[in-house]
Design goal:
The protein has 18 helices and 25 strands. The chain is of the alpha/beta class. The strands form three sheets. Strands 17, 18, 19, 20, 21, 22, 23, 24 and 25 form a nine-stranded mixed β-sheet that branches. Strands 1-2-3-4-5-6-7-8 form an eight-stranded parallel beta barrel, surrounded by seven helices. It has an eight-stranded mixed β-sheet with strand order 14-15-13-9-12-11-10-16, covered by helices on one side. The longest helix is centred in the first third of the chain and has 21 residues. Bound molecules: magnesium ion (MG) (2 copies). The site of one magnesium ion has 4 residues, from loops.
Amino acid sequence: MRTSIATVSLSGALTEKLTAAARAGFDGVEVFENDLLASPLAPEEIRARCADLGLSIDLYQPMRDIEAVPQDEFQRNLRRAEHKFRLMERLGADTVLVCSSVSPLAVDDDALAAFHLRRLAELADGFGIRVAYEALAWGRHVSTYDHAWRIVEAADHPALGTCLDSFHILARSSDPKDVEGIADIPGEKIFFLQLADAPLMAMDVLQWSRHYRCFPGQGGFDIAGLVRQVIKAGYQGPLSLEVFNDVFRQAEAGPTAVDAQRSLLVLQESVGLTAPPAPVVPTGIAFAELVSPDVEPVSELLEALGFARTARHRGKPVDLWQQGEARVLLNTGPGARRDGTQLAAVGLESPDPAGAARRAESLLAPVLPRRRTPEDVPLDAVAAPDGTELFFCATGRPGLPDWTRDFEPVGQPAPADGGIRRIDHLALTQPWHQFDEAALFHRSVLGLGALESVDVADPYGLLRSRAVTNADGSVRIALGVGPAPSADDGDRAQHIALATDDLVAAARRFRAAGGRLLTIPANYYDDLAAKYEFEEGELETYRELGILYDRDADGAFRHCYTETIGRVFFELVQRDAGYRGYGAQNAPVRLAAQHVRRPVR
Ligand code: MG
Ligand code: MG
């Protein structure tokens, strides 16, 4: 289906919004009146700009408080409407959105509303314009889609139809039965379909709508279920996004538009309209790649953790550090940032690396060059929204490009063994405006499942975190957004959590090797003693080592943290098989402890 986006969904001047929408592949736009009023361009110039960009103007919006008002007020409304229709002629827009009235003057009289809308449609028809009547969830007398449709039906004019808005419909009822009536509306009378998702919240519906709308798949509404009914009705118009969101208003328009387009690609797939390459779910973490301006501090830390430097890249200053199935690449090449060490790339084990890349590309993920230098093994890789490079790997699998062939063993592997088996999870802090985008990306592009979002108190703000994972937990990525002490990327912490079967032993070995663990306040352990029963001496050991403890119905989770280098720190975790979390309830204590210790660059 054609795709469209309301200009109000994107930040910037009107021309920036139009450019972003066109670049992201939208076929059309809804021009939001305020964007036009604030533009220095004449309507004809906006029309020409859209034509140059290959965008149609699918809707002009909104007109408000038109119907079921006293006669003299309605006459004024018609004069106002005529002015808008002339403007729309210049703009080249043929459909106008009319929202159900919120005016205190409006009366509860469907017959009068139908009469007024018919008069408005007659006037519009003279300009070749169609009127799409939409029920606002907070409309004074008309607040449901079926009520709006009954009035449109009664008005019975070919230039009058209805506009369905998923937010207004689903904010009032999430019962699938309540949207089934949509399929009974004649498709040609559904003049427009606006789509927005939203997180499920108990709050005033107008505030919810104006501030928290998000793109389909980012919230809690069953948008696909609604779209199926609209398709069943025979709707032929575009899928159009109308998203009022405080974050998107501030974020750069270009990436937001791509995110928006991706949400519609995923939506169309989920209702069976398209069949892009299927997701290839990763089956493990092949490696985590750190880039660092200085090899020393990270090497020391890895050594203390029991990693051995086993191989070096044939053409670049990249070392492979390994322990069990945990592999860390340490890259001190030109990509290293002056402001410190960061986790720049992740290798994901993939049953079909090329297929995974095709899926990613079909969902607008930027594809990276297959070879970083001419000698490299050709690897499929894409960039995640936060810029993290994701490599689709086939470690040690014959017949497929194997990244380890780029590496040459360096003498004897060190005897160290810190008891680390594998990477348990990665935690990637996202730019503040990309939290929802990141979750949708990892779910749709990589086929990972998303857990509920959790809020964690940081001494200087709130951290939101949402984990994405595959079915057996061999790939776990915790996506977060945190309070930003500054806009500097350097403050966005990342961590690599390493799995061990014996955390106490691993922590002791790390300390004996000169490693320093994050110190946790005594108050935490006093509280822990009140919460859980421990074996003799167990709690004292945790206190001594700075081990944090959590438990759910299925098992326990023990974890501790190294100091931070640049943006990166390590976590050691011992996870009982059934435990599915990440120790979120301990995160406030950990975050506070990390603020006490200033990171080493
Ligand atoms: Mg709307
Ligand atoms: Mg963690």
